[in-house]
From TrEMBL:
Residues 217-435 form the Metalloprotease TldD/E C-terminal domain. This is Metalloprotease TldD/E C-terminal domain-containing protein. It comes from Azotobacter vinelandii (strain DJ / ATCC BAA-1303). InterPro entries: Metalloprtase-TldD/E_C, TldD/PmbA_sf. Transmembrane segments: none annotated. One of its GO terms (biological process) is proteolysis. It comes from the Bacteria.
């Protein structure tokens, strides 16, 4: 599938169809993905998904509407579909009310990046997975292949992005039903890196055979692995939205108001280069943003609608005003020293079911997931039964954040509902002097 040529052909067929003062934008998303599902360390299902979706928006002054359609990839079949979508929109748009917050980027811009190359060799990866999982009860899914995104407008905007990646998300189950969850993702499969991830999962699996420890509610020292920290930052990502901050709906409201701060160890960037998300949105090129600087608030994510409503300057954040390529700076903690520095407390590999218990206070609640261990004197002693936490980010990532690991880990979204997700986070692990469990 030559997605770029297909996208260009769609644009060439669309431009001559415009009339008078009409304008358009065309958003294009495609993937050519291979999926392999594992159960009990055997391949149970393998398949390939090739799909293309486009969203055509038609503008007439401040009136606009959009039409989503699925495409075949064959231009002879897709031209009539696109023409039909345009005709449907043309019949609808004049009857709509003007949009007072519509701020279209009418200056031409161009952004192109292509790192699709040869997709990761799925057969090689699957072979190594099966070898490494021999004798284990492994359940997981491996997804790999190129993803494509394009955007263009009748005013001269053009963006194209192509990137190949893989994501292997798996769990190792103990005979007692407990599990260790792990993931390995990136753009280049490395046998050595995968072997180390699997060896670490095997080691933690052995500890699950010990009797589980039940802890009383209270405050504990804790280490949050990158996957656990990822769940927290996923909840906080919308807190950098200009709209959320202006309306008082951001969980980071106190931080940006100056009444609270985070630890000086926390520096967080929206980093365009090196991420798997496009370097553009439908509102123009994205740029690097320093969201948090040594615990203090930095820039906000500002879409054009927020810019129009609140008198701000848009920075390409798009409608959702949510980070696409978060990167947290690492610290000085070597991974080999994590247990020794923790000394006595909780090693938390994953969190789930997160929600806000008090959004204005930045307070989160959720559950420990899969392999959480009790550590004493720098040694894992026993697995810990599922516990609920309830704590404020201004506490555990504030004065109680003691250290961050030196080498951040790349985490890709594992979601495949409808299509593989794009974007990435690069996060360290976090050593906390206090983390509150409630039951």
């Amino acid at each position: 599938m030559n997605a770029r040529e297909h996208f260009h052909d769609l644009l060439d067929s669309l431009r001559p169809l415009l009339r008078g003062d009409e304008g358009f934008t065309l958003d294009y998303r495609a993937e050519d993905s291979e999926f392999v599902r594992f159960n009990r360390a055997r391949v149970r299902q393998a398949g390939q998904v090739r799909q293309i979706h486009a969203t055509l928006a038609l503008y007439l002054g401040e009136r606009h509407a959009r039409f989503e359609l699925s495409l075949s990839g064959t231009i002879e079949e897709d031209r009539p579909r696109l023409r039909h979508a345009l005709e449907r929109l043309r019949a609808l748009v004049p009857a709509l009310a003007p949009d007072p917050y519509l701020r279209l980027e009418r200056e031409p811009w161009r952004s192109e990046s292509s790192e699709a190359g040869a997709p990761p060799e799925v057969a090689t990866a699957v072979g190594q997975i099966l070898d490494a999982a021999a004798g284990l009860d492994l359940v997981g899914i491996h997804a790999a292949g190129p993803q494509y995104q394009g955007f263009a407008s009748s005013w001269g905007a053009f963006g194209w992005h192509a990137a190949s990646s893989f994501n292997f998300d798996w769990s190792l189950f103990h005979a007692n039903g407990q599990a260790v969850k792990s993931a390995y993702a990136g753009q280049r499969w490395d046998a050595g890196t995968f072997a180390r991830r699997m060896a670490s999962a095997r080691e933690r699996l052995e500890y699950l055979g010990r009797p589980a420890l039940t802890l009383a509610p209270g405050d504990y020292r804790a280490y949050l692995a990158p996957a656990a920290l990822d769940e927290i930052l996923d909840m906080l990502g919308g807190g950098f939205s200009a709209q959320a901050l202006a309306s008082g709906a951001s969980p980071l409201q106190r931080l940006f108001a100056g009444s609270a701060r985070l630890s000086p160890l926390v520096t967080l960037d929206e980093r365009v280069a090196g991420g798997l998300a496009p370097a553009f949105t439908g509102e123009g090129p994205r740029r690097d943003l320093r969201l948090l600087a040594a615990g203090l608030p930095g820039e906000r994510l500002i879409g054009s609608r927020s810019a129009a409503e609140y008198g701000l300057t848009a920075n390409g954040a798009g409608d959702h005003e949510h980070p696409l390529s978060l990167a947290m700076a690492g610290g000085e903690l070597d991974e080999r020293d994590i247990l020794a520095r923790l000394d006595t407390g909780l090693y938390i590999g994953n969190l789930w079911y997160l929600n806000f218990s008090d959004r204005p206070a930045g307070r989160l609640t959720g559950m420990t997931r899969f392999a959480t261990f009790w550590v004493e004197n720098g040694r894992i002693q026993a697995p810990v039964g599922t516990m609920r936490f309830d704590d404020s980010v201004f506490d555990f990532l504030g004065p109680h954040l003691e250290a961050l690991t030196r080498e951040p880990e790349t985490i890709l979204p594992a979601g495949t509902y409808g299509a593989r997700q794009s974007g990435s986070r690069t996060l360290p692990g976090a050593l906390l002097g206090r983390f509150t469990l409630t039951l």
